[in-house]
Each structure stands twice: as structure tokens, then as C-alpha cells.
Design goal:
Length: 490
């Protein structure tokens, strides 16, 4: 069969698939518009623009927005029938091409699935669609005097399902109330063939809640979520202190984190570069620790006093109140604001254990001696873990700088894995690290993937296989690092 006839056959199949889907879904939510496809093929990292966007065969043919679990189930069943790859997408606020098509097919956009089904104030439980934004969920819980136990700092835009898919280990409330794994009660799950299953903490089926959390959607789609909530506290206060040395800052950070009597709702540590790039104005000194406390007034007051007393022992300088208000107001945009200082923002996210923070930071500062603009930001997770985000700011006047910074981050990533830690976000782009350093876990996930999705239709090239070969990436980074050094010596 010649190429023209193949294209004609594919176009007929595409048209027929569209007609079939429109039998159970409103046509305005079934799109083949190239601009909509482009708009939903990337994420905040923009990595798809140089990894996949230029490759025509990876471009999706449809963007489809189911409005409920029934439509989602029928859609996935129809995709399975036509053997069409499926890319599951929430708000796209994650990174590293976590929601980027890698085999074409259909992008399934969950944002129409945004209803709250039930709020049980007595049992302190909410059941909602997985595509609802955290902002909308918080607004509806507010009417009952309730709030999520934990949520990401990108809460204004990000969806509940995204926090489930990317592990939900670090964010607002995690240190105080636990991660998504701790608060999730059940999910309604749609498998690649369109069949639906309710998975609870007691489920004995193929998948457990632990299997789904952090799986980046490779096993199927989370359609509905039931999770624990907490009562809305009557007071909230943010404190911030700056320090001359990283040693003092991290000691303060650890003391607040390990205080059982005064657990912060949110805790972060940043350097002066991050403060400069993330805010229009910034205080003096080199390192900054911020903590948010939310409880009844007396408990919050005690926590604030504890932080103040601890900081004074470490020569901590209090950050002014007006700045703290700006910091909390802009919490959802803080990391994004860094990007305004460059044409191409490069970053990598790591999970670093409490005991390795100094070693990680020392390796980072030693490796980052190359002359490029960089910044350091860390948020506390629960159970001894922390999310560290490193930034490189490139104006791409010379491509050697862009790839040179990525080569530096590659060295930091390898060192982190070799010392027992990992990356925080994987997606498509970082999967080759996961395969290299977690081969046994990757093999177990692949076995489950083959069982549930034998055609490999759903969220392919995440966790279990990669388009990028480790040796090839290593060679590219080796070359890039040397070219970068050459550029800096000219």
C-alpha cells in the first residue's frame, strides 16, 4: 500500500472515530483543531518544544474533554477499540513532559470533570471529580468550614488528579497532615480498556492505591477521588527569617520541621538568588526560611513564639511583615516568577532526605561554579523528605549555555541517585534516570503495565521505558559540558 493510500485510510479512521465519540459526548468537546492540540501538548517546563513538538508523528490527532466518569469510560473503551494511544492530562502544571503525547493519538483533558459529589462534614471526607482544581475544591469546602489536608503550591490551576499522579509528597499541609497517600480513601479508576473499578484502602484487586499514587497515569485514569479533609483553622500566620550561612538556615529549618508541638503547615528554604528572581523586592542576607502556621489562635501564637526563639539563637533576622504578606499572596506563582528573568528557564526537581541536605547543597554549589544564573529552593515534605528545585536561567544567546546548564544538572542528578535519593518529578524526560537507577522497580511496574495495558496505549514512555538512551544522553551531556566550559573561557 502506497503512502497516499495509507494517509487516506488513516484520515477515514480519524473521521469515523470522531463520529463514534460524538455519539456519547457533546461535539464541542471533541476537537481536532491543531491549535488546541498544540496548546494541550506541553506543560510548564516547555520541554516538549524541543523534545517532541518538532516530530510530526508524535502529534496527537484529538483533544477530548469528558465531563464525567461515564463519558471517560466510554472514551477509553473507544480508544482501545481503535488502538489509539491516550495521553491523560489534567492542568499541565507538572513538568518534564508529564502530559505530552509520545505516540500521537488522543489527549484526554480532565478539566471538565470538575464536580464535587459529596461533602461529609461528620466523617470529614469529600468526594470529587479528579479534574477539579484545588482552588475550586477549596472554595466549596470553605462553605462547610473545611479545607484540604494537603495540596500543591500550584493550587490555583492544578487539578486533584495531578497531585495523585505525581505522588503528592510535598506541598502545603503535607508536613502537618500527611501526603496524598495518607489522606486518600478511595478512587474510581478507569482502566485502559474502559472498564471501571473502585479502589479503596482495603482493595485486593490488581491495583492498590499505592500503585496508582505517583504512577504518572501509566496504568489508567483516576476519575473520582475520595479523601480526608480537615476543619478550617481560625488563625494563620507566616514567619520568615534570614541567615548569613546555609548551616544556620538548615539548622533552623530542621528544628521547625522536627517540632511535634509546632508543625508548620508549610516550610521552605531558599537562597538569595531565588528571592531576587521570584519577587520584585527582596530582603538582605543569603538564606531564607519561611514557615506558615495554621491552628487555633493560641496554638499558632505558641508556634510563632517557638520559631522566634529558635531563630534568635541562630542569629536569624526577621523578615518584615509586608514582605511575608506578599510571599503568601504569591505562593502559587513564586516558582513561575523566576522565569521572567530569562528566555528559557531550565530546572530540575529532586527528593532529598533530611540527612543529606548539606551534602546535596555542597555538591550543588561546587558543581554550579560555572558562570550561569542559578537559584535554589526547597520545600519540606513529610517523613524525612524534601523537594529541592534548582533553576538555571538562560537567554539562549548561545545554545552551549542551555545544554551546558542541563549537563550540570545531570551531574547533580547522578550524584543524588548514587547517594540513595531520587528525582521528584519524572514524566517523559526524566524516565531514563529512573530506568537506570531503579531497574527492579521499573521491571515490576512494567509487568503491571503489560498486564493492564498490553497494547501500551496509555501514557507511554513514562517510568517503564524511554525514548532516550542513557549512554546517548551521557555522551551529549559530556560534550555539552565541555563546550560550555569553552564558551566561558572565551
Amino acid at each position: 500500500m502506497n503512502e497516499a493510500k495509507i494517509d487516506e485510510k488513516e484520515e477515514i479512521g480519524k473521521t469515523q472515530f470522531t463520529k463514534d465519540v460524538e455519539e456519547f459526548m457533546p461535539s464541542p468537546h471533541v476537537s481536532t483543531d491543531i491549535y488546541e492540540i498544540e496548546a494541550t501538548s506541553g506543560d510548564l517546563s516547555l520541554l516538549s518544544k524541543y523534545h517532541y513538538k518538532f516530530k510530526e508523528e508524535y502529534r496527537a490527532t484529538h483533544v477530548i474533554r469528558p465531563g464525567n466518569t461515564e463519558e471517560l469510560s466510554k472514551l477509553m473503551q473507544k480508544c482501545d477499540e481503535y488502538s489509539l494511544p491516550m495521553t491523560l492530562r489534567a492542568a499541565g502544571t507538572s513538568c518534564y513532559s508529564a502530559s505530552t503525547p509520545t505516540k500521537g493519538g488522543v489527549i484526554i483533558d480532565f478539566r471538565r470533570m470538575n464536580k464535587v459529589h459529596n461533602i461529609d462534614k461528620e466523617k470529614m471526607v469529600v468526594k470529587c471529580d479528579a479534574g477539579i482544581s484545588w482552588q475550586k475544591l477549596m472554595e466549596e469546602l470553605l462553605e462547610y468550614g473545611l479545607a484540604p489536608k494537603c495540596y500543591p503550591t500550584s493550587y490555583r490551576a492544578s487539578c486533584v488528579s495531578g497531585f495523585v499522579a505525581t505522588s503528592g509528597k510535598v506541598g502545603v499541609g503535607v508536613l502537618k497532615n500527611g501526603s496524598m497517600k495518607d489522606i486518600l480513601r478511595s478512587i474510581v479508576f478507569v482502566k485502559p480498556d474502559g472498564s471501571t473499578e473502585t479502589i479503596t484502602r482495603e482493595s485486593q484487586g490488581d491495583l492498590s492505591l499505592d500503585d496508582v499514587i505517583g504512577s504518572f497515569g501509566i496504568f489508567g485514569a483516576v476519575a473520582e477521588v475520595e479523601m480526608e479533609v480537615t476543619s478550617l483553622k481560625t488563625s494563620l500566620e507566616m514567619v520568615g527569617y534570614s541567615f548569613h550561612t546555609f548551616k544556620m538556615a538548615i539548622e533552623f529549618f530542621r528544628t521547625l520541621k522536627n517540632s511535634d508541638a509546632s508543625k508548620p503547615l508549610f516550610l521552605s528554604l531558599s537562597d538569595k538568588h531565588f528571592e531576587k528572581y521570584a519577587h520584585w523586592t527582596f530582603p538582605s542576607r543569603d538564606y531564607f526560611v519561611y514557615a506558615v502556621y495554621s491552628d487555633d489562635p493560641s496554638a499558632t501564637s505558641q508556634s510563632v513564639s517557638f520559631a522566634k526563639e529558635t531563630a534568635s539563637k541562630l542569629d536569624g533576622l526577621s523578615v518584615e511583615e509586608w514582605y511575608l504578606k506578599e510571599k503568601w499572596r504569591d505562593m502559587a506563582d513564586t516558582e513561575l516568577n523566576v522565569g521572567r528573568w530569562c528566555e528559557n528557564l531550565i530546572f530540575q526537581e529532586y527528593m532529598v532526605s533530611d540527612g543529606r541536605i548539606e551534602d546535596f547543597y555542597n555538591f550543588y554549589t561546587e558543581t554550579s561554579k560555572e558562570k550561569y544564573r542559578h537559584a535554589f529552593y526547597m520545600m519540606s515534605g513529610a517523613k524525612g523528605e524534601n523537594r529541592v528545585k534548582l533553576f538555571g536561567l538562560s537567554n539562549i544567546k548561545d545554545s552551549r549555555e542551555f545544554f551546558g546548564i542541563k549537563a550540570v544538572f545531570n551531574d547533580i542528578t547522578k550524584n543524588n541517585y548514587e547517594n540513595g535519593d531520587s528525582l521528584y518529578t519524572l514524566g517523559v524526560v526524566n524516565t531514563f534516570y529512573f530506568l537506570k537507577y531503579n531497574p527492579e522497580k521499573a521491571a515490576a511496574l512494567l509487568a503491571m503495565k503489560n498486564k493492564l495495558d498490553p497494547k501500551d496505549l496509555v501514557n507511554s514512555y513514562r517510568l517503564v521505558k524511554a525514548k532516550m538512551r542513557t549512554w546517548r544522553m551521557g555522551l551529549l551531556f559530556w560534550i555539552a559540558k565541555r563546550l560550555f566550559k569553552t564558551m566561558k573561557t572565551i
